[in-house]
Amino acid sequence: MEATAAAAFRECLVRWYLEHRRKLPWRQTVDPFGIWVSEVMLQQTQVDTVIPYYRRFMARFPTVGRLAEADLQEVLKLWEGLGYYARARNLHRAARQLAADNHGILPDDVIALRRLAGIGRYIAAAVASIAFGRPHAVVDGNVKRVLARLSLINAPVNRADAYPLFEKEAQSLLDLKDPGRFNQAVMELGALVCRPKRPHCDACPVAAFCRAYLTGQVSTYPKRVCKPPIPTRAMAAGVIQRGGRVLILQIPLEGLLGGFWEFPGGAVEAGESSEASCIRHIRKKTGLSVDTCGHLGRIRHAYTHFKVLADLFIFRWRSGSVCLDDHLDHRWVGPEELTQYPLPKTHHKFMSLLVGQDFRIQRP
Ligand code: SF4
């Protein structure tokens, strides 16, 4: 876009944003920590889902220092259900880095921000521009879609190697007077008007600058590469009863659900029954021998890159002491204590099987 058109584009976009933006809790603050937390939560997650989590999190941890002092288990518990738990672990780790090295103060430049755990180029640009007014354009899914349509960019939005192209385009349009406001305006346009399906072009404040709209090609942008279908993994997990309690294991921190707690179990191999698989995993991961009491049911759950089809069994402890293979820790807990621990979404679905089956912990 040439310079005069770009200036007019910015003016139209920002005027629209000031009038139509949503009143979101993180837009009511200039606190860099609150802005950082919101950007972390908003990655891969819808605004409506984030709002209650954000409010609870900021009420409990209003400063970097309070977060740094907290136990990771409490942070994960507050994040439970929001998904992508590495975000919570990294946020906690970064808060501790800041508390130890920088008096709990968030740096205002992207290079220093990117040294913190979990801060990549998107969050660094978002925090630097929104909290500190630094001239860095943000590029997320909404921004890429808007830019692809505005400038007829043929690079697929879902290919990582196309990112620099979109970043360059976003940077060329950035409003240097107020980069944070401009970045939020582009993202808001993508969220409210230039939506993936059926964009509201008739109500679009920048339609006069949009090459896809002006050439009748809106439905063909953005371009995407086809991804292979999402695989389904068969899993099995077991509720092991002993003395009125059940066994849960803590997942190693490096994993997808690191720090969370789960019933023992694992992947079902080809040709293996779910029950045999579950007993095999229990033996390997805990050293325990168990007797089967029953099959409680099956749940489905979809993660970003795979789906899970998981059977839940109930077992009675027969012999052995817990000897962990790769888990961090274990607890024998009463059924009423289970929800005090951060549990993966699959396990909340397991809970409904336990309730639905009128589950009772057997006392010896
Ligand atoms: S005119 Fe339509 S396609 Fe172009 S930016 Fe506006 S909403 Fe998106």
TrEMBL record:
InterPro entries membership: A/G_AdeGlyc_MutY, DNA_glycosylase, Endonuclease-III-like_CS2, Endonuclease3_FeS-loop_motif, HhH-GPD_domain, HhH_base_excis_C, MIG/MutY, MutY_C
Gene3D superfamilies the UniProt entry points to: Helix-hairpin-Helix base-excision DNA repair enzymes (C-terminal) (1.10.1670.10), Hypothetical protein, domain 2 (1.10.340.30), Nucleoside Triphosphate Pyrophosphohydrolase (3.90.79.10)
Enzyme Commission (EC) number: 3.2.2.31
Enzyme class: hydrolase
Domain Nudix hydrolase: 231-357
GO molecular function terms noted in the UniProt entry: 4 iron, 4 sulfur cluster binding; 8-oxo-7,8-dihydroguanine DNA N-glycosylase activity; adenine/guanine mispair binding; metal ion binding; oxidized purine DNA binding; purine-specific mismatch base pair DNA N-glycosylase activity
One Gene Ontology biological process: mismatch repair
Pfam families: HhH-GPD (PF00730), NUDIX_4 (PF14815)
Signal sequence interval, chain numbering: none
Origin superkingdom: Bacteria
PANTHER family: ADENINE DNA GLYCOSYLASE (PTHR42944)
Function according to Swiss-Prot or TrEMBL: Adenine glycosylase active on G-A mispairs. MutY also corrects error-prone DNA synthesis past GO lesions which are due to the oxidatively damaged form of guanine: 7,8-dihydro-8-oxoguanine (8-oxo-dGTP).
Family: Belongs to the Nth/MutY family.
Protein name (database record): Adenine DNA glycosylase
Organism encoding this protein: Desulfococcus multivorans DSM 2059
Lineage: Bacteria, Pseudomonadati, Thermodesulfobacteriota, Desulfobacteria, Desulfobacterales
